[in-house]
Amino acid sequence: MSEREITISELGHRGDGIALTESGPVYVSGALPGETVRAGIAEGRARNPIIETRSPDRIEPICGHYERCGGCSLQHLAEKPYLAWKHGLVAKALGDRGIDFPVSETVPATEGGRRRAVLTATRAGRHTVLGYHEKASHRLVDIAECPVLDPSIVSALQGLKSLAAEILPKKGELRIAVLATTAGLDVAFDKADKGYESRIPALSRKIVELGFARLSVNGEVLLEVRPPMLDMNGIGIVPAPGGFVQATLAAEEALSRLVLAGVGKAKTVADLFSGAGTFALRLGAIANVHAVEGDAGAVAAFDKALRRAQGLKKVTFERRDLFRRPLVRGELEPYDAVVFDPPRAGAQAQAEQLAVSKVKTVVAVSCNPATLARDLRILIDGGYVLQSVTPVDQFAFSPHIEVVAVLKRE
Ligand SMILES: C[S@@+](CC[C@H](N)C(=O)[O-])C[C@H]1O[C@@H](n2cnc3c(N)ncnc32)[C@H](O)[C@@H]1O
């Protein structure tokens, strides 16, 4: 493997530096545009890179685990170019689908830290390791700090570890979803061995001692000390164990503001892939809403929240698989506006139905610029005109980006 000097010209979509060489792109982990790097090169990747010229945009990472931990990829880049890079990811995805539209500046929405985290635990001899996987590895980093998480999760890391130790399999990993709620932590273990049942008394005792709100294992609630409540714009919701909620409150609010502005004065709105009601509960204050969601737990959580809610207009819901059974043209007729917020796979089948519908306004929310661009292309080809595209940065230092796009039919 020959060593040579290369110059980084751009950041890739995962945050690696890219040098464009005569033999193709070379990916350099941890390098920034403008930097020159000395490294061995094999299969398009730099090995043991040494940065020779530093970028003025390079900053000190804020976490002691950063070098190893795969949870973050861009702590070493200053905020302004970091937000610009996220903006570029969205613009590029649109460009790849032939959509030439000015993308708004990235809205930072990481304040307060992530209230929802998925950690992994495993055994290392007699110890328990709890954290995230190392960069490009299956090994776990045992985290003692994590500046991107809500502080209440960080201060509970030791407690979570001792809880996980009760049911860790001899080999393999345990997934732990943690949600910081107004009543304390909601902890959901996933992929626990059946044998955990003998540890239920010990787990229950620990949950109470640790002051956590609820513990669930493999989707079943084991003990609810207090309902793990989230305040959704004044309405209390108790999410399903391990269920989806926006990872930061700041992003939930930023996305909701953009969704509400997007639907404008619509009187009837369909909220598709509605989860536990992040948008529907807010939209219900200004319009009649029909929420559609595929996950039974999320639908049940939404139903309960609706019963507690006051002063909403008519809000209805249904459980439905929108990949297999999107709302078809006739079903879309009653709506002035449709909001959709699918998982990473996007909403192709639904976009195809919207493209032949008469719905005036579509607000597309996405966590994947590539599938969003595909769905926007379908809508634009069906006669919609883009009004705005706004990236929202919910996952600090990661390559993830949320986007809200508003389209109208003339
Ligand atoms: C990105 S989340 C958005 C949830 C909600 N809009 C929010 O902001 O909290 C995507 C949602 O789509 C749901 N979902 C995934 N696949 C689905 C499908 N095939 N049909 C309907 N809903 C689905 C998930 O359960 C999840 O609630």
In short:
By secondary structure, the protein is α/β, with parallel strands linked by helices. Helices cover about 25% and strands about 30% of the residues. The chain has helices spanning about 80-95, 150-155, 155-165, 200-210, 250-265, 280-285, 295-310, 330, 350-355, 370-380; strands at about 5, 10, 15-20, 25-30, 35-40, 45-55, 105-110, 115-125, 125-135, 140, 175-180, 185-190, 215, 220-225, 230, 235, 270, 290-295, 315-320, 335-340, 360-365, 385-395, 400-410.
Task: Give the helix/strand layout.
Elements: E1 3-7, E2 10-11, E3 17-21, E4 24-28, E5 36-42, E6 45-53, H1 79-96, E7 107-108, E8 116-124, E9 127-133, E10 140-142, H2 151-154, H3 157-167, E11 173-181, E12 184-190, H4 200-210, E13 214-217, E14 220-224, E15 230-232, E16 235-237, H5 249-263, E17 268-272, H6 280-283, E18 288-293, H7 296-308, E19 315-319, H8 329-332, E20 337-340, H9 348-355, E21 361-366, H10 369-381, E22 384-393, E23 402-409
Parallel strand pairs: 7-22, 12-13, 17-18, 17-20, 18-19, 20-21
Antiparallel strand pairs: 1-5, 2-3, 3-4, 5-6, 8-9, 8-11, 9-10, 11-12, 13-14, 15-16, 21-23, 22-23
Helix pairs in contact: 1-10, 3-4, 9-10
The protein binds S-adenosylmethionine.
S-adenosylmethionine binds next to loops.
